[in-house]
Amino acid sequence: DSALGADQSQIEDYCADILRVRAEFGADQIILCGLSYGAWIATSFAMRHPELLAGLVLAGGCTGMSEASEQARADFLNARASPLAQGQTPADFAPRVVDIIAGPHAGTDIRAQLLNSMAEIPSQTYKDALVCFTTPKEHFDFNRITCPVLMMTGQFDRLAPPDEIRSVAQRIHDAGCATIVRFEDIPGAGHVCNLEAPDAVNRLILDVFGADFFCKQRLMRPSR
């Protein structure tokens, strides 16, 4: 329901929002969680403010379009913006999107939540996010991530497949700066794993960032 600004949103705008929330709570460091587009935003924040992070949780994404070629970015933008150019709204193509992001075991209630969420996005907001996502500011330097990292994706995630996210987790591990790097795939889940398998997602977060989190000093290699 938030209104867009007068100008095209930039990644810096999202990072500024996170900084405002941090200031509102008077926090020194934060554990930042991002899903899909939000995972790319969270990693972008880590590139700019690594000292402010006590932990990073990345679900269903990480690098976004930061490592894609200019042609791949243009193709991504055109493919997803073309329905808007044809006069459709997110509500019109929401069923097709849900077919892609929902896992094969998602029940009617989960699919309805995904459909309603997608259908509520204003066309202008959707286009603004697409443009921001396909014009990344940098190629990520994983040496800048110095906090513990938990990465996860759904077993049946078609947008961020387990092998792809596991590979990125390995690269973060190999950079050698993150104190913990852990990867897990969520059994039975699709792209929005926190909605389809909330208990499994919550258990993982609490396992890594629970009461004994600050006592952990070991480095956990990505699961294979």
> What class would the helix/strand composition place it in?
alpha/beta
The run of helices and strands is HEHEHHHHEHEHH
The rounded distance between the terminal residues' Cα atoms is: 41 Å
Tell me, what's the shape? globular
Which regions contain 5 or more consecutive residues with pLDDT less than 50?
217-224
| Major sheet details | 4 strands, parallel
For this structure, the quaternary state is single chain
Question: How much helix, percentage-wise, in residues?
Answer: 40-55%
**Structure annotation, total helices:** 9
Number of strands: 4
Query: Taking Cα atoms only, what radius of gyration do you get, to the nearest Å?
Result: 18 Å
State the strand order across the main sheet: 1-2-3-4
Mean pLDDT: 92
Query: How much of the residues is beta strand, in percent?
Result: 5-15%
Structure in a nutshell:
This protein is α/β, with parallel strands linked by helices. The protein has helices at 11-25, 37-48, 70-85, 90-101, 108-119, 123-133, 162-175, 193-196, 198-209, and strands at 30-35, 53-59, 149-154, 181-186. Helix 2 (37-48) links the parallel strand 1 and strand 2 (53-59).
Report on this structure:
This protein is an alpha/beta fold. The chain is 48% helix and 11% strand. Helix 1 packs across helix 2, helix 3 runs antiparallel to helix 6 and helix 4 runs antiparallel to helix 5. The longest helix is centred in the middle third of the chain and has 16 residues. The radius of gyration is 18 Å and the shape is globular.
